[in-house]
Amino acid sequence: MNTDPLFDVDGQNVLVSGASRGIGFALAKAFAERGARVVITGRDAATLDEATSKIDGKVFPLVCDVADTGEIESVVGSTIETLGHVDTFVNCAGVNRRKAALEVSEEDYDFVMDINMKGAFFMAKAVGRHMVERKSGNQIGIASLNTDRPGLQLSPYAVSKAGIGSLTKVLATTVMAMILVDEGFLDLDKPVQDFLPLFQGPGKEKVTVRNLLTHSSGLVAYGDLYNEIKGKQAYLERIQALDLDYEPGSQSVYSDYGMILLGEILERVAGQPMDEFLEERVYGPLGMKETGFLPPADLRDRIAPTEDDPWRGYMIRGEVHDENAHALGGVAPHAGVFGTAPDLARFLQMILNGGVFEHQRIISRDIVEEWTKKAGIPDSDRATGWDTKSPEKSSAGTYFSPDSYGHLGYTGTSMWVDPERQLFVILLTNRVHPTRENNLIRQVRPAVADAVVQALETP
Predict the structure, then answer these.
(1) What is the Cα gyration radius of the chain?
(2) In which band, very low, low, confident or very high, does the pLDDT at 120 lie, cut at 50, 70 and 90?
(3) Which residues pair with 150 in a beta bridge?
């Protein structure tokens, strides 16, 4: 197990479902060794007892069959009775089904997986009610996609629909740009001024569309424009009028403003709003039925809340967390997409497959390979629209290969792809709940990535 701390859990109460082996076991062991009181659940008593014997610390095993919703309620009740309350719930139920998938017939497979997914959801819901009552707690869902059985896929489950924050930059803006370049409609080396004539000022003639994608445009990172203006046109006018902060191409400074300008360029080239383009060209063809901007009100109960926001004066749920994206109307190139782990898994499997998934070609293999490599910006690991693994202290952990690529989201989301291992890890958390002061996600991300790799590679 990685020796870096998972996060500061000394004295905390943690529930880990599906902890008999694999990822769940590795995470439960890490929590216990760092001073947490841990309840672990699994379907088989003997396997669960064996796992308990291998963990040093305060560990309490509880047998739970996820096919029995009544048993789930009982186990959650026993957990709260044992621990008093639950600070963190890590939902790994269903992750360790790789071997199980080999043992069932193809006719039974979907039935087994469906029970597993529903069980994971009901457990998360039961623990969630407890956390809502306490107004405190964290839930982490972990999903696995590939199995060793040819022709079969283990569907990842989603505890809830989540705002994916800056993963929007990849799931929306970057993939839209990839398609337009792939089809010959967009030249990344054209000046931004060719598309946005109001983008005038010293040095701005040097800024290209590629600079916007690699965060090397010279624009500042961020600002609180939401306190002053509202609406897309006002934002475009204000951002275009900003002076550059550094020489274009000389460094990489992660910039939401650059992404907002890029989104406008893409919509003008495509002749179509971003949300419509994505539904028609990406989300629809990939079967990403629960991904998109501006989720309807009837889905609110399935959406994880983010922050108790002092600017808006209420707990944010079902609307974009980022203030500027909210002021833009909720559809923004830098933030605003909502989705689930299964949908994101379909997207990343498409990328991992070289631009195709379930006979649907979204982009060419050449574009995927080119855009996920380092872009050559001085002292930067940025790729074109994507990020790549840094040599030290990467959120992708220790074991992901040097060619890995992905992206992070401010609210606690991340996704990393390892093409060498044919593996990806999606982490959807709400680290800003109830406030943004908690930065422990920086320790969680690499620890989860390491736990996944170790669990999959341990015989």
Answers:
(1) 22
(2) low
(3) none
Q: Which residues contact 143 (CB under 8 A, 6 or more apart)?
A: 94, 95, 156, 157, 158, 341, 342, 345, 426
- What class has domain 1-159? alpha beta
235 in catalytic set:
no
Look at the block and give the residue holding tokens 């800056």: 166
Q: What is the DSSP letter of 226?
A: G
Q: Give domain limits for the chain.
A: 1-159, 168-273
Burial (0-12, 13-18, 19+ Cβ within 10 Å), 219: buried
Q: Which of 109, 157, 257, 405 is catalytic?
A: 157
Cβ proximity of 318 and 298 under 8 Å: no
Q: Identify the CATH class of 168-273.
A: mainly alpha
- Beta-ladder partners of 60: 39
Which whole-number Å values give the CA distances from 283 to 15, 287, 289, 318, 449, in the listed order? 34, 6, 7, 19, 26
Q: Please report the DSSP string for 31-78 in residue order.
A: HHHTT-EEEEEES-HHHHHHHHHT--SEEEEEE--TT-HHHHHHHHHH
- What secondary structure letter does DSSP report for 152? -
Instruction: Report the length, in residues, of the chain.
Output: 459
pLDDT in tens, 57-97: 999 999 887 667 677 778 888 888 888 888 777 777 654 44
- pTM listed for this prediction: 0.72
Identical topology for domains 1-159 and 168-273: no
Amino acid at 1: M
* Burial (0-12, 13-18, 19+ Cβ within 10 Å), 28: buried
- Helix (H) / strand (E) element for 338: namely strand 337-339
pLDDT band at 21 (very low <50, low <70, confident <90, very high): confident
Q: Could you give the count of Cα atoms lying within 13 Å of 197 in the half-sphere of its Cβ?
A: 0
